[in-house]
Design brief:
This protein is an all-beta fold. The chain has strands spanning 46-54, 59-64, 75-81, 95-103, 106-112. It has no helices and five strands. Bound molecules: copper (II) ion (CU). The site of copper (II) ion has 4 residues, from strand 3. Copper (II) ion binds next to strand 3.
Length: 113
């Protein structure tokens, strides 16, 4: 038996494409200068106790400790709240932390914890 073996040798040339990858250095934008004024720091939270809640008028009576940013001694007084919804979760007797600011002569609570 005569066997002819044809061996086909296929050589495959792999062409490696060399891509010049340009490395784009994305420079971080260092222009984000977030300047916070000293009057809007979280450290201005003052302890207080809820004495009266007026949801319709958006007012809150607090017995508060010294308010550092307003230079106010401890007392019981009425504040306005920035948003009436801030009063929803409160109950008389609650001890809270609040931030009060002087808005054109009106002492306004901007944050309650
Ligand atoms: Cu006061």
């Amino acid at each position: 038996m005569k066997t002819n073996k044809i061996i086909a040798t296929i050589t495959t040339f792999a062409f490696a494409s060399i891509l010049s990858v340009g490395v784009v250095a994305t420079a971080a934008t260092g222009n984000d200068s977030s300047i916070k004024t000293a009057t809007t720091q979280a450290a201005d939270m003052t302890p207080g106790e809820v004495r009266k809640i007026d949801k319709q008028a958006g007012k809150l009576t607090l017995k508060h400790e010294r308010i550092a940013n307003l230079n106010m001694p401890p007392m019981t007084m009425v504040f306005r709240v920035k948003e009436k919804s801030m009063l929803n979760a409160l109950q008389v007797g609650d001890r809270i932390l609040f931030k009060a600011v002087d808005k054109n002569g009106v002492l306004t609570i901007t944050e309650i914890k």
